[in-house]
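Researcher: Next entry in the queue.
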Amino acid sequence: MTQQQASEPYLVQTPVPDGESGFDEPAAARWIRSGHTRHAARYLTVGALSFLLDLGVLTLTHSVFGTPLAAATVAGSATALVFNFALNRRAVFPGGNRPLRTQVVRFLLLVALNFASTALIVVGLASIGVPYPIGKVCAAALLVLLNYVAYRRWVF
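Model: Structure for this entry, 156 residues:
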């Protein structure tokens, strides 16, 4: 075993032509080098901006204009959904080759699935004693990851 193999056991030796090291780089390094981190950062930025827009519209319509809370909540969510779809389509997944109608339908189906999944996760975890805010955070973390894959492979 060489010194490099001993100090970096995660590297896999593969047959290579003479003159090359014979080691693959770690999967994480390949993922970073391939540009996925910039892509994921754009996705997370759009999500954060969508959340802030949702909260801003909710606060503005309810606290400033006196709109009932339920209506203000729907207004914030609807505004954020339109913003999220448009920005993900343009800035994060611009190379999608599906027709706009297909993308919209799939996006809305995913939104419905997210609502149902969130409810099931939060209520399910609460039923076994997990505080509901922790359940909500768990649901959001899981769905952020799953949505990234769904947006990339299915929606756009």
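Model: The CA atoms of residues 17 and 27 lie 21 Å apart.
Researcher: Noted, moving on.
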